[in-house]
Amino acid sequence: MSPTVQGVNCVIADDAQIGSNVVIGHHVIIHSQVIIEDDVVIGDGAVLGKSPSKSKTSRLLTTDLSPLRIGQGSIVGAQAILYQGSSIGRECYIADQAVIRERCQLGTGVVIGLRSTVENDCQIGDYTKLQTAVYLTATSKVEDNVFIAPMVTTTNDPYVARTKSRHDAMQGPVIHKAARIGGGAVLLPGIHIGQEALVAAGAVVTRDVPPYRLVMGVPARVVRQVPEEQWMFLPDGMRRE
């Protein structure tokens, strides 16, 4: 078993579980019960297993959270913050200053870009990429092989913080397999982006996007079919050869 390499001024809880061949940078904080599998790299100043807090008016559930788990071979960047209750899959890359809130599930090979935020209760499938400064709102679901360009914003509150009804209506978007979202696009609450769909840069998506269709504009409208040579998956779900 290869030893863990630890930088200076780290604070590591006694009950944290750290695998072999783990590299921990300087000034890292690892909270109670965090599980770090083999071959993980933790950048300087990262905070792992942070407990969530909330405002007095928030209905967010912050108790009974499972330990944070970081899968084998993953990389966590400098000053990234990963909350208690989330699970990071194998071979993920969490860039500098990214934030992943509680109860999030990341699959294998996920990339979370510089200063991106993944809010609570999100699911992100295998080999999906969020580039720089993406905001993924709470309760979003993103399937496998999705690409989300820089500065994309997703929303989950159809009442925009007015009326108590919003609490039961909150739902982030669902982005289906191999869809692509262009830079600066905005997705409204509960929107479905179909398999292999493409949302153009700067679009504001106010309604569901059909599979294999390109949408653009404000509000976004279907323009044409995504060229078949760009598809990763066929309509039956099989991957193209």
Brief descriptors of the model:
single chain; 241 residues; mainly beta; UDP N-Acetylglucosamine Acyltransferase, domain 1; nine-stranded parallel β-sheet; 1 helix
Overview of the structural elements:
Strands 1-4-7-10-13-16-19-22-25-28-30-31 form a twelve-stranded mixed β-sheet, with no helix packed on it. It has one helix and 31 strands. It has a domain at 152-159 and 166-229: 3 Solenoid (UDP N-Acetylglucosamine Acyltransferase, domain 1). The relative contact order is 0.08. The protein is mainly beta. It is globular, with a radius of gyration of 19 Å.
A few lines on this structure:
The protein is mostly beta strands. The protein has 1 helix and 31 strands.
Instruction: Give the second-level CATH assignment, the architecture of the domain at 152-159 and 166-229.
Output: 3 Solenoid
Label the overall shape.
globular
Mean residue pLDDT: 94
Q: Any idea of the CATH class of the domain at 152-159 and 166-229?
A: Mainly Beta
**How many individual β-strands?**
31
Structural class, judged by helices and strands? mainly beta
Strand percent estimate: 25-35%
Strand order of the largest sheet: 1-4-7-10-13-16-19-22-25-28-30-31
